[in-house]
Amino acid sequence: MSAKIIDGKKVAKLTREEVRQDVEDWVKDGNRAPFLQVVLVGTNPASDVYVGAKTRACKEVGIQTDTKRLPDTISAKELKSTIHKLNNDDSVDGILVQLPLPNHLSAHDVIEAIDYRKDVDGFHPMNVGRLTVGEPSFRSCTPAGIMELFKHYSIPSKSKHAVIVGASNIVGRPISILLNKEEGEGKATTTVCHKYTKDLTRHTISADILVVAAGQPNLIKGEMVKEGCVVVDVGINRVADETKEKGYTLVGDCHFESVKEKASWITPVPGGVGPMTVAMLMKNTLLAAKKSIYPE
Ligand code: NAD
């Protein structure tokens, strides 16, 4: 079997087009355009690339945006004070602090400083907690994007065994919660693996749906995957490649060539989950502007 490709680029484009139309209608109704404030601390080339992609997407869908660039010497107190000002600024709908932060800053503290009603990344404990108990919340963009891909391709998860490799707060844990939900979407039985999991293959081989978000290039090989499995590769890893102008190439956490021979569906890297993350951020920013999740 050779897997069918889950084309995240295509679905993200459709999602952005939907958001663009909704933003246009929202503004036609006399509202100001949604505004996303990005906060970028220090100089991290990968962060620059991600912020660039988010800014371009905002322009495309009619969301106003600005990037506040702060030095990597900024103290936690100064950064939190900047965030508090943005929390109190009624012209700001969404606040996104680009991660990772320099080592002296705690991402947890900084995220908690964001007003949860403006937390369009869906990382604030209030949003994570509400997601866990099934209340409306801003959903972390990558897991939300994965669920959107399943919906678009009518890939069922009900009663399936979904194995998630990686247990981070931004991908692994929230996708396990969404897939495991008994109400609405999800309805899968989930297993969450992490770096302390013994015999990873014992788990991955039993997966009907395998979501891999470990940040380990080519961790999952064809022999670790069951025939017909749906594979979502979240990993984005830079590996040195002198044949490329940039000096690196992007690979996922799955060995694409061998895994695609076993899987029924697979996301490529790049062009799979990545574009969906940005598209869902656009959706969340519009929801924040409309105060749809947290009405006043
Ligand atoms: P993280 O480093 O915060 O977490 C990694 C998780 O994987 C941890 O739970 C760790 O225990 C687990 N892990 C590591 N090695 C493992 C192994 N050998 N076996 C089993 N589990 C293992 O990472 P993250 O922020 O969740 O990101 C994971 C990957 O996804 C990275 O490559 C990142 O760049 C990528 N990512 C992509 C998107 C996107 O939009 N496509 C968004 C976020 C993250």
Features:
Rossmann fold, binds nicotinamide-adenine-dinucleotide, alpha/beta, 11 strands, single chain, three-stranded parallel sheet, six-stranded parallel sheet, 2 domains, 296 residues
Element layout with pairings:
Blueprint: E1 4-5, H1 8-28, E2 35-41, H2 45-61, E3 64-70, H3 76-87, E4 94-97, H4 107-113, H5 125-133, H6 141-152, E5 161-165, H7 172-180, E6 189-193, H8 200-204, E7 209-212, E8 230-233, E9 237-240, E10 248-251, H9 256-259, E11 265-266, H10 273-290
Parallel strand pairs: 1-11, 2-3, 2-4, 5-6, 5-7, 7-8, 8-11
Antiparallel strand pairs: 9-10
Helix pairs in contact: 1-10, 2-10, 6-7, 6-10
This protein binds nicotinamide-adenine-dinucleotide.
Nicotinamide-adenine-dinucleotide is lined by residues 142, 165-168, 170-172, 193-195, 197, 200, 213-216, 219, 234-237, 273-274, 277.
Structure description:
- By secondary structure, this protein is an alpha/beta fold.
- The chain folds into two domains: 86 residues, Rossmann fold; 134 residues, Rossmann fold, CATH 3.40.50.
- Helix content is 39%, strand content 16%.
- The chain is globular, with a radius of gyration of 19 Å.
- The mean pLDDT is 97.
- The site of nicotinamide-adenine-dinucleotide (NAD) has 25 residues, from helix 10.
- Average predicted confidence as pLDDT: 97
End-to-end separation: 52 Å
Largest sheet: 6 strands, parallel
CATH topology of the largest domain: Rossmann fold
Bound molecules: nicotinamide-adenine-dinucleotide
